[in-house]
Predict the structure.
Amino acid sequence: MKALIIDDEKRTRELIAKMIESFELQIETFPIGENVESGLAAIESIQPDLVFLDIQMPDGSGFDLLKMIPNKQFEVIFITAHEEFAIKAIKFSALDYILKPVDPEELRRAVEKAIENIGQKKEESQFEALQLNMQPSQKRRLVLKTQESVHVVDLDKIIRCEADRNYTSFFLTENKKILVSKTLKDYETLLASHNFLRVQQSHLINLDFVDRYDKGNGGSVVMKDGSEVPLSPAKREVFFKILENL
Amino acid sequence: MQMIHTYMLRCLCCILLLLAGHAAAQVPDERTLLKAFKSEKNPHKAFWKLHDLAVFYQGNNVQKADSLRTILLNMSIHEKDTVRYVALIFDAGIDQINGDMDVYFNKVLDLQPFLNKLPNNGVRMDLYQRLGDYHLYHREFNQADQYLKQCLKWGKKARDNRKISETFRLMALGQMQQNEKDSAMYFVEEAIQFGRRSADKCVLARAFNAQATIYAYFGQVELSVSKNLIALQLANEVGDLPKIARYSLDLGEAQLSIQNYREAELYFKQALDVGSRIRDRRLTALTEINLGVVYGIKKEYGKSMDAQKNAIRTLLPFNDFDGLGTAHNNLGDIQRELQDYTKALSNYNKSLVYFESSGNREKIATVYHNVGIVFEKQGKYKNALNYLNRSAEIRSQFGFKGSVYSTYNTIADVYQKIGNSDLAFRYLKMYSDYSDSAKTLESSAKIAELSELYRSEQREKFISMQADSIERQRQERALTSTKLENIQLKTNMQTYVIIGFTLIVVLGGVIGFYRWNQTQIRRQQQEAEMNQTLLRTQMNPHFVFNAMSVIQSYIYDNDTKNSSKFLVDFSKLMRLILENSSKEFISIQTEVEILDKYLSIQKLRFEERFEYQIHVEEDLFEEGAIIPPMITQPFIENAIEHGRLHLREDGFIHVHFFKQNDMFHITVEDNGVGRKGAEENKKSKEHKSMAMKITKDRIENLNKKYRADGFMLIEDYNKEAETGTKVLISIPYRVSNQSLI
């Protein structure tokens, strides 16, 4: 298996290569791309299974590089020092990334996950969603990966999310439901700034879909699809404050 | 504080009211104004005297006002912008009175440069309002709304109740044209509220007249009449003849629409009388058109046609397309009554031409409808249907729904006549559907009956209400004056004036101090914000984490020496930045130390792929020169991160500090890809513009503070190959007061 590392700092490239080799996972490392141009050439010649890709490089971003490759036959793990905005877009698109300075444990988890995914069909839709999520004014799309397929969902189609231990169920418009193996907490951090509110331990709702508030049963929120979600007493104040400002 | 403010304001208002009352007592008359103008030798002052006279004529003799406008314009040619503006506005105002709206609005559009030339609230509000009116006239409601909202904003800021009222009035009329009844009513109520507060009866009268217009538009004729009566009463009180004429005309039209012909004739005659007194020939012509209609209804056809023809003759030189169109349409109506269909059609045709020139869709639809009826009478059903359908189309498309139903009714009639009962039924059904939705119109017939009974009663009631409110106002004024007496500010005007002025001075002082305080706080805030952004660019997280990553790589290689050295260098740099970035100036030595550390770390990050030099003129050290911290840093960072210095063998960055013409000059040169090469890259462009903006702001701040002409210049290092970048920053040269070691 071949891993290509593209970063504008030679030291960082070599550091990641050494770390990967120390995992003894039989991965051959190529720390050779230092910008978009040489990165593209390296991908051509090496045909890697896994690409570590720096986001900010002198002649463009890692996203620019990806745009130029139509059929991506490799897994991508982004490397970033501090691009808050980019990290958010990556998370929305359910792609993977590591932060500089590199935590070896984090790196190992990312590599192992990538190995698992290799061989599966590569999803263009995830990268398309990424390009879209990078544009600040565009409405965002969330990528939800399940065992069988990859769903790309517009945020304004999500009515609510419900926790089920380590899984999360997404309830969408048109009565669709998607079960994802990530915790509700993960999605709460991602969606909180997009008009979603965790109204109770196991419920995250899209405030755009709130139909009404019922006082019975200790208070519950009724969504536009008719579903009823309990409102925890601790969240009451926040919930009503937001409703007032809608 | 706020309380004191309002209290003081109130006192001041009372006094100003009294002053205004005194001033209003001296009503100007033609003779004194004329004499004042003729005896004035100073041309500048003469302009204002003539302007006073012209404004007087505007309300009393429109023709004379018209004749003065060219003189005023000529006199203003060499005057200041303020004077020029007043002359142009007066000129445009006459066109507005003459109903030549195209010319009027063109002149308003031409006035727009004054928004920059005379940046004061009055001009801004005035022009925004007129521009809003312009867009309303052309049914461009979004643009109108924008201008009017601006006007409202400034009006509220300046607490100019008259302007606020006028703006609300226009907004209300705009909503009316869009068939938004509730908003129109709301806005016009606001207009009345602010009109009351302004204590300007002219403004209040206009607001009531607008309310009447809106009621009439939505078919509530009775209310319309009562509101117009109030407007008329107010106009009477201030002796505003043009308004009396105008409102009488409006009242007559309202009475006409509810078929109350006797009353209508009365009001039209009053309008005619006042109109001819002030020589407003256009208004008299428009009144004649309406009187003609009344005569027509009374079957005095000859008299009616004479009135229309007379009006046409008068209106021709005014280019009043709407008026001319209406007159021809009315002529057509009478000829149709007389079954002289060829002449009727020819007049309708002329009418159409006029309405098409003025773009008045509502009237075009009316004429189409009338033409359709003529064809129907002639038995030319195909032609009739053609015209009726066009009328219906326009009426339903542009929301003149009140009238569309009568067209549907006529169409149904025509279909019945040609035996197509299917379509006849369909149109009848549409007619009944529409007449349901247009209940206002159905009920207007009922109102006509009712108003016969209630009109006189209503009128008395409203007039007595008006009298009540006048009485109330008088009582209020009496109350304030007795209050003033109680505080022993007795009788004579002089004391009032003195106290008024003292109050103005005190209030001005308070407000001035408040303002000054506010700006001071705002400036501090701005500076704090800028410091924040500065720190963030200098301690760019991207740079920090990347540097840490380099340290990690040394550790991973067990290279203790280098990892320790890099870590220490990095910490030193961080410390220097944290200590110095909030200072306004630092010594040139410190600046060089920071840059040197920064560049050496960056060089290590990039595998020593470039060389750098920092050169400082010796004198600067000796004189103890000081400099804003890291003013060059954004450009250095730019050269390193986006200049692609690593692509060449001999990449370099040169920083040079020197003094020239009492200014501190700093240059940053690199031989990277340059601006053209970097432009392909969006990221670097964003970054660059950010760097430029921050530096520009800093230079501007320094310029303001030290009254200097600092600047920033960016050019290619190698001008032929368009590669590399050279940045020149020029800032005021300053030295430290303490001797620096």
Notes: The longest strand of chain A covers residues 158-164. Chain A touches chain B at residues 8-12, 14-15, 18-19, 34-35, 56, 58-61, 81-83, 99-102 (CB under 8 Å).
